[in-house]
Amino acid sequence: MGLFGKKRLPDVKNRIVDIHCHILPGVDDGAKSFEQSKAILDIAYEQGIRTIIATPHHMPDGRNASPEQIEEQVARLQSYADECHYDMDIYVGNEIYYHEEAADLLDEGNICTLAATSYVLVEFSPMDDARYIRNSLNHLQNMGYQPIIAHVERYMSLVKAPFDTIKELRDMGVLIQVNAGSITGFFGKHSKETAEKLLKLKLVDFIGTDAHSDGGRAPRMKECIEILQKKCSPDYVEQLLYGNAEEYIL
Ligand SMILES: [Fe+2]
Fold this sequence. Notes:
Shape: globular
Strand content: 15-25%
Number of domains: 1
CATH class: Alpha Beta
Order of helices and strands: EHEEHEEHEHEHEHHEHH
Bound molecules: fe (ii) ion
Distance between the termini: 38 Å
């Protein structure tokens, strides 16, 4: 194949932005110790990730790390990164399990937005209905926030083709995140099929690792990138892995 017939494969590694990662120690069901946080960071770096937004769960039960604790942990991990991985940047965030008080808590500064922007990563129960999800995201928008729905492939009410609610959400300005492990099949056949369909329709804005450990749920991206490069255009791969994050959040 001649030079101009060859599909351009962008060098997406060493620039990837992971907007969904439970890397901070002892604040949720993610990293259990600072040692494990460092191990997760090492893997992320090796996988080509260069920016991580740390997104510990913020749950309605009130047992959450404070923004000050999150900032402190991010600074500590950034110091480690500065020693070992000079071009790795870590930012504060939360993965907000949506509940009625979420917008007020954001306004009061008790929940972290993504990298101190107006963007927020929001999750729901897998069984929540489409109208509830749409109205909740709309409420956040009315309160001045830009919601990104976390691992959209997980919500039973949204994943049926032709994905009318997901299209409606995007028309509203909601952005869509899919987990890397859903694209590779790590989370099962159904998630993989859903993720593939969503990618084909270009209904996805971000790929996140949703990493929780340095073991089974490590921040793996390489296998996902290979699949994306086979199935998506080079421009779309770039948008998914860093372009949109750079444009909207960083
Ligand atoms: Fe998560």
